[in-house]
Fold:
Amino acid sequence: MRMFGAIGAAVSVAVLAASPQAVSPAAAADSEMTVSHYFTGNIGLAGIQAFFNEFKKETGTTVVDSPIGHEDFKTGILVRAAGDKLPDVFSYWAGARTQFMVSAGKLATLDDMWAKDNLGAVVAKPIAEAATIYDGKRYLIPIGFHYAGMFYNPKVMKSAGVSETPKTWDDLVAACKTLKAKGVEPIVIGAKNRWPAQFWFDYILLGTAGAQYRADLMSGKASYTDPQVKKALALWKSLADAGCFAPNSNANDWTDAADQVGRGDAAMTLMGTWITAYWNGNGLKPVQDYDVFPFPTIDPKVATSAVGPVDGFVMAKNAAHPDAAHAFLKFIITSEPLQANWAKAQGALSPNVQVGQAAYTPVQQKALGYVTAAASYVFNYDLATPPPVAEVGLNMFAKFLSDPSNIDGLLTETQAGAADAFKKQ
Structure:
């Protein structure tokens, strides 16, 4: 099962700046098609509707749009899949969630389309290999990818006396103590919806046990009661014990955390590059009002990993309008102007090799550099393990943030739940 893949160093500036000729989509045979997606709110809706509007101009096909909130989409799309009532095309996260749909026989293969439209010359090869292939066949067309990093308020850090961003674990702890002494909350998580906490687990486990062990845990080959996982949670707890985290992590969502950092009430938050689009929309300026640094090194002997999701679109196996669906999937990846616009709207990085550095803010460029420098790029926790298992893990993170005192008991409970979920696959 293709739980995660390496984008890593191959996603270079040279690759992303390459310029093969874009091809306009062929006119769709259908007058309309159905699409469902999780790009709602100020960040995503306008950007995705730009794709729909331009697609109609190009092909004459109307997109019947069905946006659903991010959290509701996760369960709602599975219900629709179970009832064979999927739309023609829908947005989905690359990795274990797409694999789950593939294994259930719900998606159409895209190999013929990929070859016919020469998409191998459009999609950066590492992303294509990591995100589009499941069980040896193409199923997903990527639309953007993200990097989870330590986003911070540079003015707050400087005024508190933190002159350099933390590079090591000890640096991070020291920065927390300095900020706390100045009356600034060092780090906010905003884990009301659970998933923002996953990045802490991901980076600590990756930074101590490495990418291969983490892959084994995500696929059920390793156990949550292993010493490697206990060590990761113990390190995470040590940050809480040192006063690094603002209280009540489970009470606020990620935008609340972003607002705290933006206002200067807190210094840092570990989040994906979509936070830059949120801040830009609130009038904050890259580098001046916010910036990013990679998660600090814990063990220098362990190769670095970059964490993040790849968003894409997939086609239902029983799509009622397959010609229109194919045309749309081609259009969303081959339109360079709209890909650049999407990157700006989402704070994303584009998988289209025609979209170069000029499309990105200085902070996005830094994020791309960190992906390039990492030994591997892995999907975040809830995209790297099957959805039923992810639910078990996300619940573990929420419980841990509420009370990190009983690590052994929590991991025993989690392993039992994960093992049961794997058995039911």
